[in-house]
Amino acid sequence: MEGLQRCFVLHSRPYSETSLILDVFSENHGRVSLMAKGARGKRSPLKGALQPFTPLLMKWSGRGEMHTLRHAEAMGLAIPLSGNALFSGFYLNEILSRVVEPETAYHQLFFDYVNALTDLAQHSNPEPALRRFELALLDSLGYGVDFLHCAGSGEPVDTSMTYIFREQQGFVASLMKSNNLTFTGSDLEALATRQFSTAEQLKAAKRFTRLALKPYLGSKPLKSRELFMLRTRKLTQ
């Protein structure tokens, strides 16, 4: 069918007795809001299909901020996420909904998202996939930072040295003791290559992406993070 787009549902909420409002991430149009009329009806062929992590082909029409869904079909089974991977997937969906501009194409980020979901489904530790996607998201937002050169001298980073992160400038060689803004040269090389071989590098990557994403996310707490923390507390009780 002409006009079909590869998409994933990021979030949905009920509207009226039988309809849904969908927040969708599409390959060619980025984030789109859709009205799925009758999708909750008992006889609707869409019932059960419009779920997160299910690859879909979709078509819509209309102008303005809200479009009308005209066609949707699953391209395959939902990417199987459970446990920590499921909550991590919800986190990816939430930051996409919060950060990316609507009706703006993010072609590479769409495939970064697919790769992240696939990695979450295949590996027990979700942290590397999350960090790689966050870095890809920052790239797509135009957040440019040079991990491989000292912003002060222009010299290549030294794995034995410490660097402090300065917003709007980058990483500058520093003699300061370790704190939330300091990173080793080894940490920076891992961030540049998106390959994290140690737990310390993963922790450093998490510190950096939280610092970098904070201006985009604002002060409103992430619901997915709160749900994950609640689940963790229940499991440890």
From TrEMBL:
Gene Ontology biological process terms, A to Z: DNA recombination; double-strand break repair
GO cellular component labels: bacterial nucleoid
A Pfam short name: RecO_C
Highest taxon listed in the record's lineage: Bacteria
Alphabetized InterPro entries for the sequence: ARFGAP/RecO, DNA_rep/recomb_RecO_N, NA-bd_OB-fold, RecO, RecO_C
Coiled-coil annotated residue ranges, if any: none
Keywords for the protein's UniProt record, in alphabetical order: DNA damage, DNA recombination, DNA repair
Ranges for domain DNA replication/recombination mediator RecO N-terminal: 5-74
Function, in words: Involved in DNA repair and RecF pathway recombination.
HAMAP family assigned to the protein according to its UniProt record, in alphabetical order: RecO
PANTHER family listed in its UniProt record: DNA REPAIR PROTEIN RECO (PTHR33991:SF1)
Record family assignment: Belongs to the RecO family.
Protein name as it appears in the record: DNA repair protein RecO
Organism (species): Grimontia celer
Lineage: Bacteria, Pseudomonadati, Pseudomonadota, Gammaproteobacteria, Vibrionales
Gene: recO
